[in-house]
Amino acid sequence: MEKWKVRRTIIDYALITAASLILVVGVYFFKFPNHFSFGGVTGMAVVLSAVTPFTAGTLNFVINMLLLVFGFIFLGKSFGIKTVYVSILTSVGLSALEKMYPMSKPLTNEPVLELIFAIVLPAVSSAILFNIGASGGGTDILAMILKKYTPVNIGTALFLVDLLITVAACFIFDAQTGLCSLCGLLAKSLVIDSAIENINLCKYFTIVCDDPEPICDFIHQELKRSATIFKAEGTYTHRQKYVILTVMKRSQAVQLRNFIKMNQPMAFMMITNSSEIIGKGFRGLN
């Protein structure tokens, strides 16, 4: 059990590091130079950098560190170490890129293309972090504090803050930047939800067959999964049938489908997508 916990911790922090680096790349190369300001600490930093002598990376670092201090003051031990790690890594990463690769203009002359990357890369990063129980720090820390001390609806409060930052971009920069930022704000949550769903996507099998043993043996021995069997009766022939229920990852699903088609071509298969599997071997009871 201890070895498993150590292995799980190493994998989690490797994923957190990768997700943080994806976030840094998306923000620094696509969000900062285009002044896209669709919420969060990075959006706040973009807006403030236009009215102060400080760069967006510097402001992002200062704001994140202040929020970390508030987090420790108001949340104490309940303040997650993963959130601290992500906040420090992204803040240091953005500041380091400003020194190593200074940018005075966007990478391309296609703002819509850059907006797509500015949305997708941070959204994928957030999806990875949420999926392993971490957060991106920043306004998430503010959400934790509000949740603990006030009855405020957190989702509504954070959306209003993000909307305020986005509207400010319309006045500080130009209409194109403001409208792009508004599109980014509206698309961000949709992309995050879609990314989380695809990360967790599994295949749910309902298999109706005459002989369940070979199929179950393949599931147990080759795929290292389990299954549930029901006895059933065909309504047309009134012959006894067996129904096998099982869930597995997409790569395993292909193997099972091919095995059944080859060995029991008369079996009836229904394969559906499922992104919320809770139980041993999946989530919640691992």
DSSP strand tally: 6
Helix proportion range: 55-70%
**SSE order in H/E notation?**
HHHHHHHHEHEEHEEE
Helix-strand makeup class: alpha+beta
User: Low-confidence runs (pLDDT<50, min 5 residues)?
Assistant: none
Mean pLDDT: 85
How many strands, which pairing sense, and closed or not: the largest β-sheet?
Answer: 4 strands, antiparallel
**CA-based shape:** elongated
Total helical segments: 10
Distance between the termini: 11 Å
- Cα-based radius of gyration, to the nearest Å: 24 Å
Strand order of the largest sheet: 2-3-1-4
Quaternary state of the chains: single chain
What is the strand content? 5-15%
Highlighted features:
286 residues, alpha+beta, 4-stranded antiparallel sheet, two-stranded parallel sheet, elongated
Structure commentary:
The chain is 63% helix and 12% strand. The mean pLDDT is 85. The chain has 286 residues and is of the alpha+beta class. The strands form two sheets. Strands 2-3-1-4 form a four-stranded antiparallel β-sheet. It has helices at residues 2-31, 40-51, 56-75, 81-100, 111-131, 139-149, 154-172, 175-199, 213-221, 250-263; strands spanning 202-209, 228-233, 240-249, 268-274, 278-279, 283-284.
